[in-house]
């Protein structure tokens, strides 16, 4: 899909995945909007779905094990510090 992206911020994180290993990454966070059809790279993404921000807030509280470590760490920041930038899209 194509979208004009707006840079929000970058961050470094480390997270362990039990017996599977760990990640130590530098991540850049961008937001954008597109009306294109989603066609994920299946080598990178097993599944996807649209989730409204309010629903994601609720799901993160009720089922945090379903989400990646970085999303659990950064979603609150995105929702608080960058709410207006995201809403402007």
Describe the structure.
- The protein is of the alpha+beta class and 89 residues long.
- Helices cover 31% and strands 26% of the residues.
- The chain has helices at residues 53-62, 69-81, 83-87, and strands at 5-16, 22-32.
- A two-stranded antiparallel sheet has the order 1-2.
- It is globular and about 40 Å long.
- The mean pLDDT is 89.
Structural shape:
globular
Strands, total number = 2
Global Rg: 14 Å
**Residue share in helix:** 25-40%
Given the helix and strand composition, which structural class is it?
Answer: alpha+beta
Query: Which percent range describes the beta-strand content?
Result: 25-35%
Question: Number of helical runs?
Answer: 3
Strand order of the largest sheet: 1-2
Main sheet: strands, sense, barrel: 2 strands, antiparallel
């Amino acid at each position: 899909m194509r979208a004009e992206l707006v840079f929000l911020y970058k961050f470094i994180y480390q997270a362990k995945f039990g017996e599977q290993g760990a990640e130590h990454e530098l991540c850049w966070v961008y937001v954008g909007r597109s009306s294109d059809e989603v066609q994920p790279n299946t080598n990178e993404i097993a599944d996807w779905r649209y989730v409204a921000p309010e629903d994601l807030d609720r799901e993160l509280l009720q089922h945090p094990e379903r989400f990646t470590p970085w999303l659990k760490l950064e979603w609150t920041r995105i929702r608080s510090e960058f709410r207006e930038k995201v809403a402007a899209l």
